[in-house]
Amino acid sequence: MAHRITTSCPAALLALGAGAFAFPAGAQTESGQGESSGTPSIVVTATRSERNSFDLPVSIDRIDADAIREGKPLINLSETLSRVPGVVVQNRQNYSQDL
Predict the structure, then answer these.
(1) What is the pTM for the complete model shown?
(2) Is 19 part of a structural domain of the chain?
(3) Does residue 20 lie within any of the structural domains?
(4) Burial 46-55 (b: 16+ CB within 10 A, else e)
(5) Which domain holds residue 81?
(6) For 27-73, what is each residue's pLDDT tens digit?
(7) Residue 65 located in a structural domain
(8) In three state form, how does the secondary structure of the chain look?
């Protein structure tokens, strides 16, 4: 079976490619107008109400900047997931691992 490209397919690809450049860049703050206290902390929540992380029915983990700077580089996702409580990672040395 031979594949056939019609004229509408290249036109659609061209329109999608041109559409990527149609949107203006996001607003950027000037270097003097940023946060004066350094990088602000980022809070990520998955519930609509604030709860203690101990009371949530899920396992969560955070990695602070010191652990990233001082620790060894994490090559694949299994090395990061092994830090999360309740997650067991098997066969970490093979790139076709099971979680």
Answers:
(1) 0.29
(2) no
(3) no
(4) eeeeeeeeee
(5) 61-90
(6) 555 554 544 567 787 777 666 778 787 887 877 777 777 777 777 66
(7) yes
(8) CCCCCCCHHHHHHHHHHHHCCCCCCCCCCCHHHCCCCCCCCCCCCCCCCCCCHHHCCCCCCCCCHHHHHHCCCCCCHHHHHCCCCCCCCECCCCCCCEC
Contact 79, 92 (CB under 8 A): yes
In a domain, 9, yes or no: no
What Rg do the C-alpha atoms of the chain give, in angstroms?
23
* Amino acid (one-letter) located at 72: K
Inter-residue long-range contacts of 85-94, CB under 8 Å, 24+ positions, other chains counted: 85/59, 85/61, 86/59, 87/59
Residue type at 35 in one-letter notation: E
Q: Whose structure tokens read 């990061």?
A: 80
What is the total count of domains within the chain?
1
